[in-house]
């Protein structure tokens, strides 16, 4: 169970590293293909805002990856749960305010990781 939870943490972290790259470095190129519902004429004016958002995604990825190298097992799980919780909340908020797809891509994997860690802790 723990190994599966850690694999989910890696997947969620990799997703957020992709979001970082997309929002910080590919906002006016590749992001146009990913965020098709966003008006094309707004990519350039929102480049700085997207980069800021990408930086936050990088912090989430860093926290998730950090959780994997913590030696103390209790702290490792607690840190992973904290960052997965942050990702899940961001996914839920994104689904409520922007697109339901955000919950599927971001929220569900984080919630899966949380469930797996809780199963590991309590069973």
UniProtKB/TrEMBL annotation:
Coiled-coil segments: none
Q: Which InterPro entries match?
A: DUF1304 (IPR009732)
Q: Which residue ranges does UniProt annotate as crossing the membrane?
A: 6-28, 49-69, 75-96, 103-122
Q: Which UniProt keywords apply?
A: Membrane, Transmembrane, Transmembrane helix
Domain of life here?
A: Bacteria
UniProt name for this protein: DUF1304 domain-containing protein
- Identify the species of origin: Flagellimonas alvinocaridis
